[in-house]
Amino acid sequence: MNEFDEFFAELKLYGDDFSLEEIEQWYEDEKEAYSELGSKDRGQYCYSYHALNVIHGYRYLPDRIFKPVLSIGGAYGDELIPIYHKIEDIFILEPSEQLRQPFLKVKPLHYINPNIEGKLPFPDNYFELIICLGVLHHIPNVSFVMTEIYRVLKREGFLLLREPIISMGDWRKPRRGLTKRERGIPFEIMKNIILDCGFSIQKCSPYMFSFTSKLNFLIKAPFNSKIIVKLDAFLSNLFRFNQRYHRVKIWEKIGPWSFFWVLRK
């Protein structure tokens, strides 16, 4: 078994043990990669996961004001729109200089540049709520960053996390519509990282079923539709058993591609 066989076989997470030099190169590759896929065109940009975030995440939060709140890789802050009336003092950790705006509705956004090593520039037990949606698979040292997220989250605070559990193809080769470095995180590896950090799992939901995920070719932003999200949740749970990481054969691809975690410290 060679090095990459271990990653595809879900024995190790690629990039999690990278040296600082390797992390720096990864950071440079990914810093503006997502914006260059088209997101920097604010006029054409459409956030595509509002209904999904509400159904799998936001509705499990208590009905109160959260202050302060951290969005990791949150770009324009659009992911916070469904709960913006419940949050104050919004910080966004965002590497891209092109994916920024000054306000979310009427609330100012405070942008922070990431530390390349993954250390978060905040004191211990600082945030009441942290949002990290589809970001960790863009970074190498996931385990370390998760320990940092745990450190800066207040006791009894919430972390909303969602990540793909599939390899997203072979990341050693160019892939259409994906950045150079992004790769999914195997379910069991992600679960172990979460538990090792000390988080309590409040909810763990599969989503993005192999068929409904293709609807974006027919419907603009399908995961902004509550009906589609609920259908997707039903199918994803039905085929939840099929969680193979590196999916090559057709039958291996029939199942959920991602998981949404509601976590508490």
Distinctive features:
single chain; 265 residues; alpha/beta; Rossmann fold; 8-stranded mixed β-sheet; 7 helices
Summarize the structure.
The chain has 265 residues and is an alpha/beta fold.
Counting helices, strands and paired strands, the structural category is: alpha/beta
The CATH topology is given as Rossmann fold
Which band does the percent of strand residues land in?
A: 15-25%
Major pleated sheet: 8 strands, mixed
Strand segment tally: 8
What pattern of helices and strands is seen along the backbone?
Answer: HHHHEEEEEHEHEHE
Low-confidence stretches: none
The strand line-up of the biggest sheet is 3-4-2-1-5-6-8-7
Report the principal-axis shape.
Answer: globular
Q: What value does the Rg take, in angstroms? A: 18 Å
Number of individual domains = 1
- Quaternary organization: single chain
* Head-to-tail CA distance between termini: 38 Å
Instruction: Report the CATH C-level class.
Output: Alpha Beta
Ordered list of secondary-structure elements with their pairings:
Elements: H1 3-8, H2 20-30, H3 33-39, H4 50-56, E1 69-72, E2 90-93, E3 103-104, E4 107-112, E5 127-133, H5 142-152, E6 153-164, H6 187-197, E7 200-209, H7 226-238, E8 256-264
Parallel strand pairs: 1-2, 1-5, 2-4, 5-6
Antiparallel strand pairs: 3-4, 6-8, 7-8
